[in-house]
Structures are given as structure tokens and as C-alpha cells.
Amino acid sequence: AGRVLILQNDSGVPPGFLLDALARHQLEPEIVHVPTAAALPPPTAYRAVVSLGGAQGAYESDQYPYLNDEMVYMRQVLAAKVPFLGLCLGCQLLAVAVGGRGFRAETSELGYSAHFPMRLTAAGQDDPVARATVSTGSDVLDENLFLFHSDTFDLPEECTVLARSDRYIELFRTGSGLGVQFHPEAGGDIAAVWLGRSAPERLLSAGISDGGAAMRAEFVSRAQGCKGAGDRFFDAWIKHDVLANAPA
Description:
32% of the residues lie in helices and 23% in strands. It has eight helices and ten strands. The chain has helices at residues 17-24, 66-79, 89-97, 122-125, 188-196, 200-205, 213-221, 223-242, and strands spanning 3-8, 28-33, 48-51, 84-87, 101-112, 119-120, 146-154, 160-164, 169-174, 177-180. The longest helix is centred in the last third of the chain and has 20 residues, at 223-242. The mean pLDDT is 95.
């Protein structure tokens, strides 16, 4: 059914549940490690392109010049109308690529969405991918989705915001691109690595005073719900964005 290009920005941020979803739909992943890639392949060779998260900031392209190249590439993907999915850093880079701004957030969102409820906008309620993890009759995304970000972004007017938390934009569309601030790909195994590499002051500034003990307990208690929410999100994106988009 075709190939999906995965742009990995950070070796500690793998595609996780996304790989399971691609396999379910007979799509073949091709992973490129962006920081060491000589060049990115033509986007029209793929059914879709995904950009993963990372510790870098979308506003740190002077320090990480390859982020500039990746944002140029994102504009090429959108110009070719190839489905694009940006997760966390990938979402922030997409926002900047289309004319928005990335910046350090006032407060971090570290943990499950039970603690940072994300609600659909009116546009989001009409969007089948945004709606994928929302229970019937609700406008709140599944509480088992994981967030782990200390940066955020603003958007130009032509983008459509699909979901927000109390503080931040969490989901938006621009052309063939979908920006996702949360982590539908991340199970507790991946999240535990991110928690482990987080400086104590980052955790404290996010209101986490137990060193992450409560969050580690949730990696276990929410494991099934987290996988289910991630699967529903990726299945909806593949069905409505990728497979509905006939290859050139």
C-alpha cells in the first residue's frame, strides 16, 4: 500500500505505536535520522510523511541548522499535498514552517491528558481524526494520551485549530498537514525514558515534586488505555488522511 517516511529528530524519541498502525494498514515505514541525514528524499515518493518529537526547540534552528532544512522540506510536502503528521517538536516545526512562531512555554505539560484536559474546538468536532479518541457526546480527548512539552507555538490565521488544553494549542490543520502537540505514539516504556532524562528542575517547574513516582505508576495503570487511544488516533489519520489521498 506504499511507504511512509518518518523523520526522527532525536534518537530518544522513536515512532512507537505509529509502527503498529502502519503495519495494520500494510504501509511500510522508512525512518530517516534527520540530524545526520545528507538530504531528505522527494516527498512525492511516499504516501505520507511524519516528523517525530525531540529535545530541540523549533526556535533553536541556529543551534540545530538541520531544523531549517526540515522546515523547508515540510513546505515542500504541503505544496505537493502529501499527507503530513507532526508530533510534538514536529508539530511546532510545522507551525513555524507555515508562518507561525515557536517559543518556550510559560509552564510545561508533563503527564497524561487526565491532568491536562484537551477539548475539541467547533472545527475539531467536525474533523474525523480529531474526534477519533473522543467518547460519544463528549468534546474531551481521551484522558490516556501522553503530553511531554515545555515549548509551544502560535499559528497564522489560515491554520485551523482542532483542540486546545487550558493553556495551549494541541491539534491543528494546515493544508495536508496535521500538527499534534501530544504524543499518541508514546507508551509508558518510551515515556519513562523521557522522564528519566528530564532535569529535576524541569519536573519541579511542572509541579512534579515526587521525582515522577506518580507518573511512573500511571505508565502501568494507563498502559492499556494509552495504547488504545494511540491506535484509534493513528488508525483515523491513516484512514482519513493517508489512504483517502490517492498517490500521485
